[in-house]
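Checklist before submission:
- one chain only
- standard amino acids only
- sequence pasted in full

Submission:
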Amino acid sequence: MTYIKSKSPRKKIIDKIPTTKGEKKKAWDKFSIFIRMRDCIKTTGTFVRGRCYTCDRVYDFKDLQAGHFVPGRGNAVLFDEHGVKAQCLQCNFYRGGEPLLFRKKLIIEYGVRLVELLENKRYQTQKYTMSDYQILRRFYIAKTEQLKKFNAKEKK
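Returned file contents:
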């Protein structure tokens, strides 16, 4: 993030100038919250705890991560909801995402065709602009709010 200091010595206000990198991080943060919340509700029926997609252990929401089935930083898989699931730190980071187990479970859930499409996206590049990231951020904020409302209705 780039900062510009105010020229007035009396004011110590710092204005933040948005950058594409900063907007990407904000969009990813909202996407990650959505994925983890979606999977917590799906696996435990609550926002506070969820099951890791690969090891099936239950963790607190804060201890889950949004893990990608397909690695690659060409951005084509970064915001793909089918290929990102809640995973614990152990599976996502220390075990490299458990790709074989992840793949097996995705095939059961979605079928071979979709899994192969996700795998082929690894070699694609998706370019996003700053405004694309801002739109994605707002989109996932709205989807997260929908989850909360839907879950509240289900509980009643």
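Reviewer check: The chain has a mean pLDDT of 90.
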